[in-house]
Specification:
139 residues, mainly beta, six-stranded antiparallel β-sheet, three-stranded antiparallel β-sheet
């Protein structure tokens, strides 16, 4: 017969002979658990950055959930990408390089190279079209 398909949902597989209560997690809870292993940040608005010297700025970004361990960078917006801009000190300087300078399970330190003013404050924005970053803390 061509109608030998059947569908199953709401099943929990167990190892061993002892059954445990069924876990009902909301979609939000499942997403937060997944983000411990992989985090895609499509956009950002207003990451505060400080002029470290004439050639660089640094700023911190906090993850929405604590990751399993310090992640590795899978993707970070490229310097000069359309939809990314940094503003401050009455200007919109050009970004020459981007990198995560320091990554922990809670947050990361963002580094941009370019022409900046030491001690000045800046803020960085990235649109969803540009994308911002993807991080992985896989096993």
């Amino acid at each position: 017969s061509t109608s030998n398909e059947w569908y199953l949902t709401g099943v929990q597989m167990e190892v061993g002979t002892q059954a445990t209560p069924f876990e009902h997690l909301s979609a939000g809870e499942e997403l937060a658990l997944c983000r411990r292993y992989y985090l895609h940040i499509p956009r950002t608005q207003g990451i505060i950055m400080n002029g470290y010297n004439a050639n660089s700025v640094y700023g911190w970004y906090n993850w929405p959930v604590e990751m399993r361990t310090a992640p590795t960078n899978e993707y970070l917006i490229a310097a000069g990408a359309t939809g990314a801009a940094i503003y401050g000190n009455n200007s919109a300087p050009t970004i020459n390089s981007t990198s995560w300078n320091y990554l922990t399970s809670h947050h990361g330190q963002l580094y941009f190279g370019g022409s900046f003013t030491q001690g000045a404050s800046y803020h960085f924005d990235a649109t969803p079209a540009a994308g911002f970053s993807s991080l992985s803390a896989e096993l």
